Amino acid sequence: MSDNPDSGDHNDRLLPDSNKPTEKSMGEKVSTVFRNVLQTRTDNIKDWFMNYGIKSSVGVLCWLFGSMGMSVLWIFIGAFSVLYSIEKFHKKRKITEMFKTVTEDKSKLVEAVKQLHMENSSSLPSWIYYPDVEKVEWINRIIRQLWPSIQGYVKDILSEQVGPSIRSSSGLLGGFKFTDMDLGNIPPQLVGVKVYDEHQTRSDEIVLDMQLVYASQCNIGVSVNYLNAGLCDLDFRALMRVEMSPLLSKSPFIGAVAVSFVHDPKIDFNLTNLANMFDIPGFDSLLRGAIRDSVRGIMVYPEKYVLKLVPDVDISYLKFPLPDGVLRVHVIKAKHLMAKDTKLFGPNKSDPYVIVQVGRNFKHRTAVVAEDVNPEWNETFDVIIEDIWHSTINISLYDEDILNTDDSLGTASLAVRSVYQRGVVEEWINLTQVKKGSILMKFEWFELAHEASNLDKAIKIAEHKENTNSSLLSIYVDKACHLPVSFVDSGVFVIFL
pTM of the full predicted structure? Predict the structure, then answer.
C-alpha cells in the first residue's frame, strides 16, 4: 500500500503503452525494404532455376554423355528414380505432419482425415457417414499414455515374427534383420470403432472393428546382406477386428481376445542411407511385398493373434471358427460385350471368359466361349464365406488372346452381405470400365445347419448340380504326443485322405 495517492498514475505514465505501435526508425524501414527486395529476388531465382535450370542441366548432361559416346538412357533412368523418390518422400512427409498436427490438436481430426482420403482417392472413414461407427477419443488418450509400454511388446513381435517371415520370403532378403527400433512418440490413432449387435454375432462373443491409423516419424534400423539402412516415416492404415470369446460368468468375464486385420493393411515408409536403392521400381516392391506378406501371414483374417485371459479356456473355436455360411454362385450369361478381336471377314468378335474372386483365397475361372459377344456359361460353384460383412464378390470378364495379353471386357462387384440379407439375388449387372456390356448372375445364401436330419435333403439337392456341395466337414487337430525324435527334427504335418 502506497502513502502517495498519485504514485499509481505516475507509474502508469512511466510504463510504455504495449498496445500502441512504436514508430520505426529510418534505418529499420530501409532494412525492411531491403529484406523484402532480397526475398523477392531469391524467390525469382528459385523459380527460374526450377523452370529452366534443371532443364538446362539435363541438356548439358545429355551433351556430355553423347560426346563421350555413352548412352543418355542412364540419365533418364537416374532422373526418373530421383524424382520418384523425392515425390514419395514429400508425400509421406506431408501425411506424417498432418497426423502430427492432429495429435496436438484433436479438433482438426475430421478435416485431416478428409484431406488424406481425398488425396488418395479413397472413401472417408465410416464414422463420418454411419451412426453405428463411433469416435473413441477416450481410447486414444489411454493408448497415448500406454504407448511407451506398448512399444516393447511391438518390438518383440517385429523381431520374433515379422523378421523371420521377411527372411524366408526371398533369397535376396535372406540376411534381413532389425538392428534398432525407435517407434517414435506419436502413438496409433483409432479413427472409428464399430461394435456388432447381438444378431450379427454369436451369443458367446463380442466383436469390434477398429479403423487404425499410425503415421509416425519412427526410426527403425534394418540390415540387408551387410547393408545397413533406416526405415522412417511409417504410414500404417488397417481395419482391425477384435473378438472377445467365450463370455464367462466369473471374472475376468472374457476367456480370450483375438486380434486380426480384416483386409491387407496399407503399409508405406521411406528408406534412408544405402536402402535408397529400394526406392527404384522393382527393388522397392520386393521389400514392401515381403513386409505385406509377413503381416498377412501373421494377422490378416482368418489368421489371428490370440491372447488367453483364462488359462484353462478352450480357444479352438476362437482361433479356428466355423464359416459364416456358403455362397452359391451361378454364372449364367452375358450380353452386348465389347468385340475385341478384329476379323477380316464378318463382324468383330470376342472370346470371353469370367473370373469370380471372393476375398483373397477364392478364385474361379469359367470356360472360354469362342467368338461370341452374347455368351452363355451356366456354371455353378460354391464359396465358403468366413466373413459376411467385409467380403466382396469381384467379377471380371476377359477376351482370351493366344499371343497377346487378355483384354478386359469389364468388371462388376457385389457385397456378400447384400446376398445374405436378401437370400437369393438374380439380376443383370452392368459392367464398368467399358462402354457397354452386362452379365446375368445368380447368388444363393446357405446357412450351416447343425442338425443331422438336414443332411439327406442337402445331398439330394446337391447331387443334381455339378461343383456344388451338400455338407461341410471341419477337423481341428489339437496336438500330438510322444512322437519319434526323427519326425520332430524333420517337421511334422498331417495328411487327411
Answer: 0.59
Residue with cell 439375388: 425
Nearest 5°: the CA angle 12, 16, 18 is 110
Per-residue b or e along 292-310, where b marks 16 or more CB atoms closer than 10 Å to that residue's CB: bbbbbebbbbeebeeeeeb
413 phi and psi angles, rounded to 5 deg: -150, 155
pLDDT digit string (tens) for the chain, length 497 residues: 444 444 444 344 333 444 444 455 555 655 665 566 566 666 666 655 555 555 566 666 666 666 666 565 655 666 666 666 666 666 666 666 665 565 555 555 555 555 555 555 444 455 444 456 788 888 999 999 998 888 888 888 888 888 888 878 777 677 778 888 888 888 898 988 888 888 778 788 899 999 898 887 788 887 777 777 777 888 888 889 999 988 988 888 999 999 988 888 888 877 776 545 555 555 566 777 777 778 777 788 878 888 899 888 888 777 787 888 899 999 999 999 999 887 767 788 899 999 999 987 789 999 999 989 999 999 999 999 988 888 889 999 999 988 888 999 999 999 998 999 999 999 999 999 899 999 999 999 988 887 777 788 777 777 777 777 778 887 777 778 877 766 545 556 666 65
Q: Round to the nearest angstrom and report the end-to-end CA distance of the chain.
A: 101
Strand, coil or helix: 470: coil
Pick left, alpha or beta for residue 18 (phi over 0 → left; psi -120 to 50 → alpha; otherwise beta).
Answer: alpha
Distance in angstroms (rounded) separating the CA atoms of residues 342 and 349: 7
Strand pairing of 266-273 and 254-261? unpaired
